[in-house]
Amino acid sequence: MDAIIKDADDRMKKSVAALEEDLAGLRTGRASTALFDKLRVQYYGTPTPLNQMASISVPESRLVVIQPWDKAALPEIEKAIQTSEMSLNPSNDGKVIRINIPPLTEERRKEIVKVAKNTAEQGRVAVRNIRRDANDELKKQEKESAISEDDLKRGEDQIQKLTDQYIEQINTVLSAKESEILEI
């Protein structure tokens, strides 16, 4: 029974971590290196993560500087940024790419908040699915007489407490991201 609860805890932890990673990639009014975590650049015919071919820094709150280790990759990096869904306009000076992050319109902020809420809901659904799997596993063990009915109830209660705890974490992560997005 303890193994099932530990497994559920680990899986729920991973769900929250995945949510945090997904939300980090959402654009806010501020510059962030996380915006480029999922960006892939065609580098000698291979889609390569940008952070594996350049250093990305944020010298100011609305400026991102990308300095590729191979200067020949500059045009490809610039093209990848322009064709991405981020709607950013990079400027290339031959050595580095500078990207000014424009402030978001109120309408765009609300759209991004909707995306964040949907992403958080997917996280909550994942946690609930883990709860269901763990409860099913406990019921299966009870049917096989590996655990008693009391152990089943105790296990279900522990799993419900874990679920509530992780759902609360997801809500906290979401509200922090919401306030970051709506901040002017």
Explain this structure to me?
It is built from 4 helices and 6 strands. It is an alpha+beta fold and 184 residues long. The chain has a 4-stranded antiparallel β-sheet with strand order 3-4-6-5, covered by helices on one side. It has a two-stranded antiparallel ribbon with strand order 1-2.
Biggest sheet strand order reads: 3-4-6-5
Mean pLDDT, as a whole number? 89
Beta strand count: 6
Strand content: 15-25%
**Number of DSSP helices?**
4
Query: By helix and strand content, what is the structural category?
Result: alpha+beta
Radius of gyration from the CA trace?
Answer: 22 Å
List the helices and strands and how they pair.
Elements: H1 2-24, E1 40-43, E2 46-49, E3 54-60, E4 63-68, H2 74-83, E5 90-92, E6 97-100, H3 106-143, H4 149-182
Helix pairs in contact: 1-3, 1-4, 3-4
Any descriptors?
184 residues; 4-stranded antiparallel β-sheet; 4 helices; two-stranded antiparallel sheet
Provide a compact summary of the structure.
The chain is an alpha+beta fold and 184 residues long. It has helices at 2-24, 74-83, 106-143, 149-182, and strands spanning 40-43, 46-49, 54-60, 63-68, 90-92, 97-100.
